Amino acid sequence: MQKKYNISHVSCIRNIFWVENTLIKNSHFHIPGKKILLENKGTNNNLLAIDATEIPIERIKKN
Predict the structure, then answer these.
(1) Could you give the CA distance from residue 3 to residue 5 in angstroms, rounded to a whole number?
(2) Is residue 22 assigned to a domain?
């Protein structure tokens, strides 16, 4: 299903970059590095899993 919100592609990308940069600046969204996670092994019962698989982009079909 395709929805149209009367926003240009460039504006959409600009908004995505703004959201990403805003989240990066906020310390609540930072995750520790691999070295710190390995050093604290066994002291913290939390598990962090990141799915970094690539998914092909579904492009809009041109008429």
Answers:
(1) 7
(2) yes
